[in-house]
Write the structure tokens for this entry.
Amino acid sequence: YMKSLFNIIHTAFIFGFCIAAANATDYPNDRSILDSTIQPFYHGVASGDPLKDRVIIWTRVTTDQPSVQVKWRMAKDSAMQSVIAQGLTTTDASRDYTVKMDVTGLEPDTYYYYEFEALGRYSQRGRTKTLPDGFVGNFRIAVVNCSNYSFGYFNAYDAVTKRNDVDLVIHLGDYIYEDGLRRGVSAIDTIKRRTFPEYDAFDLVSYRQRYAWYRLDPSLRNLHQQFPMVVIWDDHEFANNAYKDGAGNHQEDKEGSWEARKAQARKVYFEWLPIADNPEESIIRKLNYGGLAEIFMLDERAEARSKQLESPTDPNLFNKERVMLGENQAAWLTQGIEQSSAKWKIISNQVLFSELDAHKLSKKHARLMDSWDGYPMERKEMLDSFYSHGVKNIVVITGDIHTSWAFDLVQNPQNKNIYNAKTGKGVIGAEFVTPSMSSHNLDERVSKGFAKFIASLLRGKKTNPHLRFND
């Protein structure tokens, strides 16, 4: 996916896999094997979108029956003796045998345990936690993104699961990668960790198969079992470099209309993830963590995004009609932050929000056109509004670019009348960019020494004075 040296930092990569066969011998490290001890709940359990009085719980039943009845129950203890809610539901092929229940009437800031029963067997027991109500002194979020199955193990999920001080997991997108095996290009499948199906997911069947394959991974399954997760999609839940009306690698002659593909990808996303259902199948929502933080979840792909420009020299770059969020979502975010009484305003955001000047690396790619630098007018309008309303303590959390960054959140970082890195003048918050779960980092595409050299160029005080850290 990289178009130049710096674009290596930004998007993902199209790699080829030279694989002649797909049997157990060829894939000794293939973890997506059915675990008979948890049948028919091979994909485990999950919870998500917690509020102070409710939470979504999820599972899937693997069966060849036309439909199946599933019992569910939730308790205050891990032994499931103090059951506080239970019920019976039916699932079938119309929703790929997934089960999603919105359990209400819960107490705030409380751990709960849940399980499912179907076909005479019980699922694993999951643990979840509701959000607090009122004053809370602290909370801890684990932030993850860019989990490409073929490019590496999900052992960072294990690192989160082993902790017991995480209140919430936020996945910033690229939960799956739609792209299949790239035969005949450069073979990098050194760990023999295939994807299924081997072709690009593009319709209802193939997107379902891709999620089913990922969700068999024990590291991901165990993470979902232990913590509630809040999710947003990025581009690879649809197709690479997706925008409202298309994607960088969508081929209409082979994969049908974009609108049909996008609709099927949305449907499968809401089937397979513990996200609260809504008629619009929208991921735009917010959560209140007591009075301490308000978390805003954005859609920067399918909702309104205009097509990416090829170059920062394009005369349309500063056209106000080009948007990332669109008028309605931008107004919802801006007004929500300005009216929020929470101490911290957290924006869960797919792509890099802060300005990044990369002209020392490439004049042609001096700005990242898939990031907010490709939509500067909409960003400027939001920041201008935040400044005029005296908003402080904004925290932007970002994924997508497979590297680590920390920025002062500021309008016009090059303008010394607005921003002073030493005194903090002009700073209204911070942006933290988390590295990928498994997708390739820059120093896995070039030498580590060269990667460090690139990082040092970007950290220049005259180039990016607001850049506090990168790796």
Remarks:
- Residues 1-25 have pLDDT under 50 and may be disordered.
- The radius of gyration is 22 Å.
- The CA atoms of residues 48 and 228 lie 4 Å apart.
- The chain has nine helices and 18 strands.
